[in-house]
Predict the structure.
Amino acid sequence: SLLKEKNITVNHNHKTSINQLDPLSVDEDELEQTLVIVESPFKNKIQSQAKINHHLTVENFGRYQVEGILGKGAMGIVYQGVDPKINRHVAIKTLQLSDDIDSPEFDEAKQRFFREAQTAGGLSHANIVTIYDVGEDNHLGYIAMDLLTGAPLSLFTQPGQTLPTPLLYQLLIQITDALDYAHNQNVVHRDIKPANIIYDDDLLKVTVTDFGIAYVSDNSKTRTGIIMGSPYYMSPEQILGLKVDGRSDIFSLGVTFYQLLCGHLPFQGESIATVAYQITKAKAIAVNQHNINLPTSAMRICNKAMHKDIEKRYQSMAEFKFALTSALKRDFKVAAS
């Protein structure tokens, strides 16, 4: 996870500074899931940390020359590198390939790591992280990918820190377009949440990242019984271990939209069991009760996207996108760009 130390300045005088962010104090899950670049001389700060200093002895992964360390995730170090032939700067996500304990968890981590390269590597969309290369070197697996600028949307999920509502509609339109493309390539993400979406306020652009638990859907091989993802954003069918398709991503994106609009999660609890009950059985508080300034379309779109009955949700990301585009034009007199 590559956090580019920069001020995140949003239109409408809405400002959030992440200059105080310490890469080694960021939640490991955030670091693992997020790919954002480090711009300022953050590298010196990291290199002074003796506990990861020895990793700087790695000079290259394949043709990529290592320029520094960007962060440490749950699965391994993330480096900044460059392809010297074309001077392309990249993020290099790594995974130790040998382990003292040959555990099922470690095998799953390896499968997840290379699955990300296989699934996202076959996708080409302006709002999906680009995978350039995958390989093995220095006893490490590595994935070379876009070095993104910006910050994860998880920085804008607290009351008082949310982005302007019209902007959120525009960003959701980009995300639905990206996931509609992925679904048409038979790729289901399965872990849509704010931490996995990077926002660049200079470009007013979002990028969907972390396809580590995505899979290529195949009607002859339904994947059931495996619960993967972040509990608060899981669909009822994920919680119940049922067959998952693109409509599960629609539910997770509905939860994400709800949280970004009001700064609260629709389904909460002190334990996974409580959250699971909320998602599968309980009715969420209407989003506009948390934020009275929202248009009625916000409640209507969230409710439909988060419907517990999969057949009553939006049936495709294209349908979700159309609802957002129509509401943006009607409520804010803004055409989707």
Remarks:
- The domain at 7-146 is CATH 3.30.200.20 (Phosphorylase Kinase; domain 1).
- Residues 1-54, 218-226 have pLDDT under 50 and may be disordered.
- The chain has eleven helices and 13 strands.
